[in-house]
């Protein structure tokens, strides 16, 4: 088991935290990534190294995503087959909770069901208003964008099975966006998750937090925003084609069908490559995957087309102008289309049972020797 801690200008209590991890589990490997902290912090990292931790260094600050990837690369090269627990360097994770996540990883491995473990705070007690409101906003936005519910979307305390380490390492994005992308792509790629409750700890009113509710919520919503842009493009193509064909032929249903064929082709190409990023290489296997996606998309397109015809016909019969009827119909079908494309068309078609995110309901106790340490007194460090 490896505990990976990315650290930028860590506090003076990093050494006791590492000592607590070794006390909780003498077999643990602790890897600390110095993300360009500078010479002033060299004694702290030297002290951690003297305790037995592996310290990796960045010459300059590169951000948390780069620090995590450096740690993952080291883990896969030096300790192949080992699971990894990542802990935030903002002082909000106790040694007890880090150990709980590692125990949960071992439990799932023993059960033959390797799962991404997420240490989630309950946000009870004296929680700063900024953090409480930010998490509430983030939960709602995440549910809309990802299609599943997570109680703590900002958690950096994660247990990663060795089977999923390369997948996590290769997710796109930098800084905060990287960790969000990992969560956003879990369902798409068939990665099972499980929540483990952890203590809610804040230091100095959570002043070290780098989460910005508005900006970072927009980042979480990026797939949905891209989908909206793609849908708007397809809507424009569809509407122009419909109006032109209807004006030329005077036939509503054939005009709807022809316009939808053109716009659906545009929409499929954009969604596949830009929105859901479900296509890359031109290999035979990739071409086969594209054909399966196209077939699923065609099923969805037929269903949406049928619904579109029914609603447009009904609304125009009641005297609603064609353009207004078109806008109303497309607005109703937008959310349904996004959800179906995300999970059915471009998602990894995994068995349903593997895709369920479940809270930790087993209530197993961690090893009794786990050392509990309050990071409100012993901050690990912070990382932008």
What would you note in describing this structure?
By secondary structure, the chain is of the alpha/beta class. The chain is built from 12 helices and 8 strands. An 8-stranded mixed beta sheet has the order 3-2-1-4-6-5-7-8, sandwiched between helices. Helix 1 runs parallel beside helix 2, helix 5 packs parallel to helix 8 and helix 11 runs antiparallel to helix 12. The longest helix is centred in the C-terminal third of the chain and has 34 residues. It is elongated. The C terminus is likely disordered.
Number of strands: 8
Which regions are unreliable across 5 or more consecutive residues at pLDDT < 50?
204-211, 349-384
**Termini separation (Å)?**
26 Å
Total helices: the number is 12
Backbone CA Rg: 25 Å
What is the approximate shape?
Answer: elongated
Q: SSE string, helix = H, strand = E?
A: EHEHEHEHEHEHHEHHHHHE
Q: Would you tell me the structural class of the helices and strands?
A: alpha/beta
Strand percent estimate: 5-15%
Query: Biggest sheet: strands side by side, in what order?
Result: 3-2-1-4-6-5-7-8
| Secondary structure: helix percent | 40-55%
Described by strand count, sense and barrel closure, the largest sheet is: 8 strands, mixed
The averaged pLDDT comes out at 79
Keywords:
8-stranded mixed beta sheet, alpha/beta, single chain, elongated, 384 residues, 8 strands
Give the topology, please:
Blueprint: E1 2-7, H1 14-24, E2 29-35, H2 42-50, E3 54-58, H3 64-78, E4 84-86, H4 95-110, E5 116-121, H5 129-146, E6 158-160, H6 165-169, H7 175-184, E7 193-198, H8 213-220, H9 222-249, H10 252-275, H11 284-317, H12 322-345, E8 358-359
Parallel strand pairs: 1-2, 1-4, 2-3, 5-7, 7-8
Antiparallel strand pairs: 4-6, 5-6
Helix pairs in contact: 1-2, 1-4, 5-8, 9-10, 9-12, 10-11, 11-12
